[in-house]
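COURSE: Structural Biology Practicum
ASSIGNMENT: Worksheet 4, Part C
STUDENT ID: 0417
INSTRUCTIONS: Below are two proteins. For each, the amino acid sequence is given first, followed by its structure token string. Answer the questions at the end about the second protein only.

PROTEIN I
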Amino acid sequence: MADRHTTEKLLEGERLSGKVTLFAKVTILPGDELPYHEHHGETETYHILSGAGMYQDNDKIYPVQAGMTTFCEDGSGHAISCAGEEPLVFLAMIQKKAE
């Protein structure tokens, strides 16, 4: 089965300054998820634009909706799933940790 999510890179290459490695709009269709993964040497922020979902922050799970922002610390893990009947749409930004 094909993935039921898309990632549209909003900025790439030199426009990202080197510190930010991803700035994208992500759309997750109902019933899909971005599975749990960890970040090492970087952080990731999601800002929810529309829809509803469930966000896993390490071993804590809570609902998210439009207007909410999540933050995954360096060395931590997270996952997100679409929990509603409408697609979950959010901005995602991965930033390298300051040295």
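PROTEIN II
(use this one for the questions)
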Amino acid sequence: MIDWRKSSRSATNAEGDCVEVSTNVLDAALIRDSKNPSGPRLSLGRPELGRLVGHIKSGALDL
């Protein structure tokens, strides 16, 4: 079973834009859109997830 979690900073209303992450899958992290849970998922290795999170936190991906 895949356990999904949202960021504690995600909006609590149904309109909130957020992603969910699962790290209880062997050697991978899964990412999905919370508004479309049965839709496509991005699968990343743990090192790649760490780099992505680092870029997000640094603001390098801000629009």
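ANSWER KEY EXCERPT:
Q1: The two ends are 35 Å apart (CA to CA).
Q2: Residues 32 and 41 are 5 Å apart (CA to CA).
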